[in-house]
Amino acid sequence: MRNPHIMKSALLLSSLFTPFARAQTGDLYTDSKTNITFWRETIDSAQTKGGMQWGYALPGTASGTNDEYIGLIVGSLQSGHKGWSGISHGGGMPNSLLLMAWVDGENIKTEFRYASGYVAPDIYTGNATLTQISHSINDTHFSLVYRCRWCWAWNQNGATSQQLPTGDSQVIGWAQNLDVPSNPIREHNNGQAQFGAPVASARNAAYTEWVSKYGGGVTTPTSTPTSTPTSTPTSTPAGPTTCVGTPAPTQTFDYIVVGAGAGGIPVADKLSESGKSVLLIEKGPPSLGRWNGTMKPKWLEGTNLTRFDVPGLCNQIWVDSAGVACTDIDQMAGCVLGGGTAVNAALWWKPVPLDWDYNFPAGWKSADMAAAESRVFSRIPWTDHPSMDGKLYKQEGFDVIASALAADGWKSVTANDVPEQKNRVYSHTPFMYSHGQRGGPLATYLVSAYGRKNFQLWMNTAVRRVIRTKGHITGVELDGGNGGYCGVVNVTANTGRVILSAGTFGSTKLLYRSGIGPKEELQVVSNSVQDGLSMINSSDWIDLPVGRNLNDHVNTDLVIRHPNVSFYDFYGAWSDPIKSDEDTYLSNRTGILAQSAPNIGPMFWEIINGTDGIARSLQWQARVEPSPPATDNTSMTMSQYLGRGSTSRGTLSINGALSMYVSKVPYLHTQEDIDAVVKGIENLQKAIAKVPGIIWEVPAPNVTARDFVNGVPVTAAKRRSNHWIGTAKIGTDSALTGGTSVVDTNTKVYGTDNLFVVDASIFPGHIVTNPSAYIVTIGEQAASKILALGTTGNGQTGGTTMAGAYKQCSGRGYKGPTTCIDGYTCKVWNSHYSLCLPN
Ligand SMILES: Cc1cc2nc3c(=O)[nH]c(=O)nc-3n(C[C@H](O)[C@H](O)[C@H](O)COP(=O)(O)OP(=O)(O)OC[C@H]3O[C@@H](n4cnc5c(N)ncnc54)[C@H](O)[C@@H]3O)c2cc1C
Ligand code: HEM
């Protein structure tokens, strides 16, 4: 699901504020004490209790002083001067220089921090420098004017990034907390978001004068350290850290599956069903109660339930992600047993046949997938009435929107009864909940696998990379974790196989660290402190477009309100559930807490025909919850997902600290993608107009759909749906021979004998719906294909695993070994023939 914009405290207090108060506005403001003029953004108190301001002044011209500014923070204070206010110099929270400020007695304290994911940020170890110019404190706010040097380019132990003020605008993030920072630091609980800052408005020729007066000396372009992150001095670790954990048992396995998520669990189960020995390695801790998970609120103590089991707590990941979210990616993903299937909202869709037919290669068309699909749905059925009494709770939101769609001629369907019908239809939401609790692969495939003697599950153990000689994988190297294993675990000699199911971010990272991917990414790994010295030699790198073709549903949030609708506080249910709801849930799994937060539905779909001849799918997912700038308790957010047919693609990269980041967002690069999003909104506006009581909040009634869409920043924080796919594309056109695919139709990585990828990363393009049921189906299908390869020669003819000198090693229709003997490398001769040539 799309990330909700949780403004818990603001929401609870929303009745105290005008629902249509200004959201964010920029103006020029001159500070009376210093006479410094700032371009200033004001975030009003409907967004964050007490409001917040941030302003900045930049040197008169873009030059060598790109890396500094004079800033203004006006943060809100609660009684006793409590509260911290923070900004992100890169806009998003992860991979960015964060600055926090709070009151300490008569003074203001500041701290630079840095986080590689949506987890507690560490103290920043780079050289950003803050000089305080002036401050004031009263009962409700503090104000700080500061000079920030080396703040637009940052380097945290080799993870570099920057947002220099050299373009038209910059994106800045803000966050506030109602209390002073704790140790360890806790997530902001008084709102967070981003805004755009117009660079030209912040520039001022008087900057040098201000700096000489207040900023600790004149700064001239020549004496300022340059702004490129590579040239800024930083404290990078002296050497690689060693694995912390227990030595791995010396056992070999026919299959090692890396990552126990939507793809990994079913593939591991099906492979173990064949009698082969299978090891499933998961880097995260247990999640559900049935797997001895322990993370839970007080009211679940004494039960076998955790936060992951209870549908009504599924959004807790957006409130408290520490220990759950992956720490090495700049997006949200679950790094716990079950991966996304442990933390998601559990929407569970029968695949749309055209999704397979349009996107996937031969062997993966809808007719090919039918058997796998029916196996998946017989093991994991769907329900659109998750409460055990068969009732649906608080359906006012569904009713309001459904009445508009019906009035406009949209058809009501039961989506999973007619998966192919996805144009101008609406439906209740199907989930993979079972007996009022989270079901899915964790409650089915993993249970059957676990019961087999030939299956092992290692949790809290991260895999560092695969170990390979040329294209032949002999095992995996472990990275330990919270009590996990270190060392190497091998696959059965000659016939063993490794399957990467670590998700779009995790599998891409493992491929990079294993020397498989574009040279520029592998070079980053090779230059890293952690892997540089031990990475596979560059002569053995396999050049495939891993990390390219990144896609995600393009999200656009609209908001309406209607007096019939009312917000149920699923977030409050974490610490203080309504007693009767707690009781009915605990005693018989009935009531609203058996439904996903925050009241998801209706779901509705439309197809938009593009001028490029492509029919694009839109899925709308409504929920009873406002999104900024709306705060009213009667609001509903309708998230539009642009899916099948989208033609924009992005890139997933790795940085020097070996964290993954979206280096190019996959959103709205083509006019036809933009047009589809706009047209979908216009069509919905027409439908909503049929019910007079519905009031538009976003876009505001006087804003056109196109202006609105053009005004929403195309950043991951604003546009993501958390349905990342595509970075190890499946296809018959090997990228080694001029094509675009990373894995073949058996999911085997081109150029390797026995390395497979089975997870969201193999999708060539996006689909209509939320993807987890498709990914489980891919797990089923891939297992059949991999098993059908047999064991000799890993499916290659002749039983040999390496091609000899000057022998064919790849090409159209070629099925033989793709790895060359020592001293030779597989090189493209022409578009259908590659051969082993001396290195
Ligand atoms: C908040 C949220 C809500 C969502 N809601 C829905 C929804 O309602 N319905 C839906 O269909 N989809 C939803 N999705 C998307 C869906 O859950 C994912 O697309 C899906 O889980 C991806 O499957 P996967 O197998 O590719 O990866 P994942 O399920 O992410 O599994 C990857 C696993 O690999 C592990 N791993 C990673 N690296 C390593 C390593 N080096 N060593 C060992 N283990 C490793 C991870 O810890 C993880 O367990 C949601 C996603 C999020 C984040
Ligand atoms: C334990 C500490 C923290 C955790 C677990 C955490 C987690 C999160 C999460 C989950 C989001 C996404 C919210 C959403 O989209 O609904 C987010 C956003 C954000 N956080 Fe944090 N956060 C923490 C601390 C901080 C700190 C100290 C700052 C300092 C400035 C900060 C700045 C931001 C900003 C600017 C955003 C909005 C931009 C974005 O979504 O990337 N966070 N945080």
UniProtKB/TrEMBL annotation:
> Which Gene3D superfamilies does its entry note?
Cellobiose dehydrogenase, cytochrome domain (2.60.40.1210), Cholesterol Oxidase, domain 2 (3.30.410.10), FAD/NAD(P)-binding domain (3.50.50.60)
A GO cellular component term found in this entry reads: extracellular region
Q: Ranges for the CBM1 domain?
A: 801-837
Q: Name one GO molecular function term.
A: cellulose binding
User: Signal peptide position in this chain?
Assistant: 1-23
Q: Does the keyword Amino-acid biosynthesis apply?
A: no
The keyword Signal appears for this protein: yes
Keywords of the record, alphabetical order, are: FAD, Flavoprotein, Signal
Q: What is stated as this protein's family in its record?
A: Belongs to the GMC oxidoreductase family.
Q: Which PANTHER family match?
A: CELLOBIOSE DEHYDROGENASE (AFU_ORTHOLOGUE AFUA_2G17620), DEHYDROGENASE, PUTATIVE-RELATED
What protein name applies here?
Carbohydrate-binding module family 1 protein
What species is this protein from?
Glonium stellatum
| Highest classification ranks of the organism | Eukaryota, Fungi, Dikarya, Ascomycota, Pezizomycotina
